[in-house]
Amino acid sequence: MNYTEQQLARIAKRENNTKRSYLVVNPLQGKHVPVSPGEALAVSGALAELLKGKIEVSRTLLIGFAETATAIGANAAVTLGTKYMQTTREIIPGVSYLFFSEAHSHATEQKLVADDLDAVISEIDRIVFVEDEVTTGNTILQIIEILRKRYPGKLEFSVASLLNGMTEEHLKRYENENIGLYFLVKTDHSRYGEAADRYVSDGTYVDCVCDGADQEPEGAESASPEIVSENAESAINYCERRILGAMDSRRLVDAPAYEAACDKLYEQIMSGQGEITGKRILVIGTEECMYPAIFVGQKMEAAGNLVRTHSTTRSPILVSRDPAYPLHSRYELRSLYEDGRVTFLYEIASYDKVFVITDAAEGAEKGTKSLIRALGRQNTDITLVRWCK
To answer: What is the reported pLDDT for 210?
Structure first.
């Protein structure tokens, strides 16, 4: 399928970011804007199709960029049947990393697990970096330089992205470096900053963080009722499940095996639910953990439900009432991975059932409570699934 800039790019305003004032929000990506999971997988699948016949699949490693491109990279790897891993900002005990940075990002540090690269280097000849958008390509050049020094003469490199906004100067540099570029849509970012500045940041902002046991944050809108028992009147029907068998794509995975693990996750979720069809369902991912939620959502969609998926994010984006603007409501949360980390969820609506799929371990109670409080403003049937090893 051929995609257009109108389909894949909406311009939003970053909050307090002097490096880059705008953010490209992709309404089909399954990150910030609720979308059909089938549509989200179709976009990344189309990107993978561009690579078919141009790389030797058995000798290729795909690397998806955290946090927004983790699902794009995973599904592209699944579509091609390659090895896969993602960059991360999380801490993984007992491993060594390769560090690099994204200068324009809200969270600049990026890492790759060096141990896994060392283990697989004899089996690969090419690395394909997968992104949602590439603007200058400088971040990717950083990690390529690190890898060339670590594995001299061993690897070729390519970049696959949904959007490419590189100037002729940056494109020429990639050509000189012999780095292949594959993308669905070419964009011109020179006008995006001006477009973002035209919007007024007058959308709905809701602080769903509660630091005290029963105290709402000062100045916040009234949040939903506290999580109570299933039998209580006007209560949120909330449950939390631990499901084993998780594969962590922050570490090297075989993409077909990763897909099989996600398929088993779906089966285990449904084994506790019974048959569900004809329902409005929301499936939420958390930060870097996006692909399992989109995958499970697509399975629920195929079973005859109207499903939407998106995920929590570290990205602080301003919201607007303007109908042409991509985001209209913002819920401030704490992370399920770390109580002190601020995260956000956008565009919450009302559904018959909500599933949150996360690989976060138990412990960040503020994060769990704030997420359920945000979802519970419009939803009463919420299941949080912790996918564990």
So the answer is: 60
- pLDDT of 4 reads 97
Q: Which of 168, 114, 104 is nearest to 143 (CA)?
A: 114
**332-353 tens-digit pLDDT:** 999 999 999 999 999 999 999 9
Q: Phi-psi bin for 283: left (phi > 0), alpha (psi -120 to 50), beta? A: beta
Cβ-based burial of 224 (10 A; exposed 0-12, middle 13-18, buried ≥19): middle
Cβ of 7: how many Cβ atoms within 10 Å?
A: 16
Which two three-digit tokens encode residue 38? 């089938």
pLDDT at res. 228: 30
182 - beta bridge partners? 160
Between 327 and 219, residue with greater pLDDT: 327
Whole-angstrom CA distances from 161 to 43, 274, 283 are: 10, 38, 24
Please tell me the distance from the alpha carbon of residue 116 to that of residue 203, in angstroms, as a whole number.
Answer: 44
Q: Torsions phi, psi of 236, nearest 5?
A: -80, 125
In degrees, rounded to 5, the angle at the alpha carbon of residue 384 between the alpha carbons of residues 267 and 79 is 45
d(CA 205, CA 1): 36
pLDDT class of 108 with cuts at 50, 70, 90: low
Cβ pair 209, 194 in contact under 8 A = no
| Rg (the chain; Cα; Å) | 20
pLDDT of residue 284: 98
- The DSSP string of 2-20 is ---HHHH-EEEEESS-SS-
333 vs 163: CA distance, rounded Å: 29
Highest mean pLDDT among 104-108, 146-150, 231-235: 146-150
DSSP class of 73? H
Residue 19 in tokens: 């490096």
Q: How far is CA 200 from CA 31, 98, 311, 319, in A?
A: 22, 40, 24, 8
**In a 3-state reduction of DSSP, which class is residue 371?**
helix
